[in-house]
Design a protein that fits this description.
By secondary structure, the chain is of the alpha+beta class. The chain is built from two helices and five strands. InterPro entries: DUF7866 (IPR057188).
């Protein structure tokens, strides 16, 4: 191959490369705005802490029972804008986790200061 056949191929790929770079830059800038990066100053307590991941094994048949959501009241650390305290939190199982494979679930806190998780 001589240099004259390589140059037209490169010229054809340059616009495609330019469009791809613009697409990547555009959607990265839209996805992270300053408002999303700065936390809101709210005095409401929010649960914080480690998330525990466990694998869930699926059965081979589809005749499964429908169960109510499982919730449990345990101690966790809850923080507001100015302070943190340990109090009972309502924990639930979450299986729709971002950046985790199907079947990985987490036992995550849902709300702080629970009396009963049945509510």
């Amino acid at each position: 191959m001589d240099s004259f056949t390589i140059i037209p191929n490169v010229v054809k790929l340059l616009p495609l490369l330019f469009i791809c770079v613009q697409f990547i830059v555009k959607f990265n800038l839209i996805g992270s705005s300053q408002a999303e990066l700065m936390p809101a100053a709210v005095d409401e307590l929010q649960p914080v802490g480690l998330t525990e991941y466990r694998m869930v094994e699926a059965d081979s048949h589809d005749a499964r029972r429908r169960l109510a959501p499982f919730q449990l009241c345990l101690l966790c650390k809850c923080c507001a804008a100015t302070n943190c305290s340990t109090m009972p939190c309502c924990f639930g199982i979450d299986c729709q986790l971002p950046n985790k494979p199907y079947g990985v679930c987490a036992f995550v806190p849902k709300k702080c200061d629970c009396i009963s998780c049945a509510v």
